[in-house]
């Protein structure tokens, strides 16, 4: 059975893995190909940029994030990415790969669920040196399209392990049961988003009390479970509006599981400060 890759056709630099790396002097698409995708698009794959010198600025889900020296910005599938208009950092590595590539790695990397709601990772000079070495080796391996996938995957595993460790560095117990429960909460919400799952149903699924679930979600996200789910629903609405993936407010409301379009409109305005019509007009 063939594997379906979400990396755009012609992007991969390996004959067997859906992965691409770019640096100032390597891996850039031709201007003609790059123009086909534009500066703003909805990502179908994982994207990382590691800045070595200088700074850069990216838009992620309509928010602007500055990335400086020894920092990594990571973007996840389905997020809206806005690329810099001008040439960014003086020295950097960019990396993209999709779920088909991730599935071949030996373990999960919890940071890819972004449980702490921070898409930028900062490294100490020593850790930045290790990360740079891994990127350099990946680039060397991807210069030849027939490189054995095992070699690439081994270094990708090392890279994601470094990122995962740095992501949770500020959390005293990054592997404790509370974090595992929060990750479980996020996964459940993603898989059942338009069903508007009740807090009680999620707590039962995770085998915790509703009070414990509220405390865990508040600790990691700063929101109550209900607020978290509502925020995620409105984010999805904003994404679909941005790409014109709706023909009416009523249709969008029903697609996202709201039985009452008027209620959806009120929630949207409360979360964004704008009506759906005003938000859509600002995008025009």
From TrEMBL:
What range(s) does the HTH araC/xylS-type domain occupy? Answer: 183-282
Q: Which residues form a coiled coil?
A: none
User: Mind listing the GO molecular function terms for this protein?
Assistant: DNA-binding transcription factor activity; sequence-specific DNA binding
Q: Name the Pfam families on file.
A: HTH_18
InterPro entries according to UniProt: Homeodomain-like_sf, HTH_AraC
What keywords are assigned to this protein?
DNA-binding, Transcription, Transcription regulation
Entry superkingdom: Bacteria
The record's section on PANTHER family has: ARAC-FAMILY TRANSCRIPTIONAL REGULATOR, TRANSCRIPTIONAL REGULATORY PROTEIN
Name of this chain's protein: AraC family transcriptional regulator
Organism for this UniProt entry: Siphonobacter curvatus
Q: What is the lineage of its organism?
A: Bacteria, Pseudomonadati, Bacteroidota, Cytophagia, Cytophagales
